[in-house]
Amino acid sequence: MNRGTDPPTWEIDVRGILLHPTENKVWLFADIEGYRLLGFAFNYKSTYLYLPSQFDGALIPRFHEVYGCDLYLLEQVAEWVDWDSHRARVVCVLEQKEGSPQQGEWVDIQAISSRPFSIPEHGQLVRQALHKLEEKTATFTPHPWRYRGWFEQAVQWIKQELSRLGYGTVIRIEQGKANDNSAILRANTEQDVFYFKAVADLPRLANEPIIAATLVARYPHLIPSPICTDPARRWMLTAAFGPTLEDPERDRDLLIEAVHLYGQMQLDSAAHTAELMETDLFGYNLDELPTKVETLLQEQAVVELLEPDEVSALHLHLPLLHEYIDRLATSPIPQTIVHGDFAIHNIAQHNGKPLVFDWTQAGISFPFFDMVELLRYETVEAIQSQLKAAYLSAWTERASLAELEDLWKMAEPLGFLVIVLHFRAIAGDSLPLGEPRPYFLRRMLRSIEKNKS
Q: What is the DSSP letter of 120?
């Protein structure tokens, strides 16, 4: 959420609930005020409040310093924010990886019940974590990495598969992230680096091992190939393939090439949507958008998060949005594969050529929506027109550039709306920190006004 042009400095307090390796206990520190969760604080300067789960790779070393042992971060279980003071607090559940913790003791539920916590909310979170340990299996959960013991299973599979495939002995495995969509580990052998990814088993997420293998069979020049997959567990291993294109000034030519190749891939994929749908892809079919839009505008959360004049503008533009949907649905541009998170952090270079990775949110929808996602970032503002032109040029066999420009004017506001629906699917009825829906609804309104003029 934008809180002004001058980025404030956010102060984030992070605390851990460290689970015992085998018993129903957690590691706590006791002082005169009661039990206390160990943790640390960090600052960062940003216009937006990013959830600390996005910093998983950085949080793990800090937790190591606090506890004195190697850990896995299982999940983020609570968060509080004060917008006025730019402070936030987060509590994470942790699992031991190697070593033993220091500065505290293992405490069971009986002891916890007999002594207060210095922060009362932490006591309730600890009790919830201990009750969760009583669940016997993580087999049927969409997020199995949130359960003690899962990471060790993943580590053993990584070592087994890399050895079987002749890549040598794994010397180190590090956690990348573990969020609502996926868990990532980085495996280092003496010669190479590999990435393990597990995808949540949720209707809105693709089984990435399957869709990646399907796409790379047709587009090996643009899609990185997994070296090993386990589709039943939604696991895959991929060799490291190069840095991401996160410097538009430096990577300008590669980015322009990437979006043109990507448009060509989408155009070609339109002939294979039946095959792609067999991989159980999620998407925003244009036929379903009108109902989704009307439902969204009736939600109390949307009404509460916007100004009254903005709510009125949304309802005023509803017939126009319906018209845009109808025009796109009957246009020469087919619905086809969409990435769902087509941004520069998901475009890499390998041997001087672009690769598009991270297909967790892939689906079938109107293809231009992906470019709305890419161009919304301030980092590409200087080359937006060049990227858009390179992308639209891939579609000239279906329509003239003038027609494509007209379709773009209708697709852009709908693209922002699809981003809102995506966040709605992720968050459900909850309103997470940095709630993004108002921001993108406002972007949609600005896009409509701009393109009408």
A: H
Where are the extended beta strands (E) located within 113-192?
170-178, 182-189
| Count of H-run helices and E-run strands, the chain | 15, 16
Query: Which single residue is written with the structure tokens 């009362």?
Result: 120
What count of residues does the chain have? Answer: 453
Q: Encode pLDDT of 216-232 as tens digits.
A: 999 999 999 999 999 99
Helix or strand run (H / E) with residue 327: helix 318-329
Cα–Cα distance list, 110 to 54, 107, 113, 114, 259 (Å) = 34, 8, 5, 7, 58
HSE (side-chain half, CA atoms, 13 Å) at 195: 19
Q: Is 238 helix (H, G, I), strand (E, B) or coil?
A: strand
| pLDDT (tens digit per residue) in 68-77 | 999 999 988 8
> Does pTM top 0.70 for this prediction?
yes
Alpha-helical segments (H) within 134-231: 150-164, 208-218
Instruction: Give the H or E element holding residue 62.
Output: helix 56-67
Domains by residue range for the chain, with CATH: 9-133 (3.90.79.10), 144-239 (3.30.200.20), 252-452 (3.90.1200.10)
- Neighbouring residues of 4: CB distance < 8 A, sequence distance ≥ 6: 47
> What are residue 31's DSSP bridge partners?
34
Burial of residue 359 (number of CB atoms within 10 Å: 0-12, 13-18, 19+): buried
pLDDT digits (tens, 9 = 90+) for 49-97: 555 555 556 788 899 999 999 999 998 888 788 878 888 888 999 999 9
For residue 89 the two structure tokens come to: 């607090």
In this structure, what DSSP letter does residue 418 have?
H
DSSP 360: T
Cα–Cα distance measured from residue 14 to residue 2, given in angstroms and rounded to the nearest whole number: 23
Phi, psi torsion values for 243, nearest 5 degrees: -75, 155
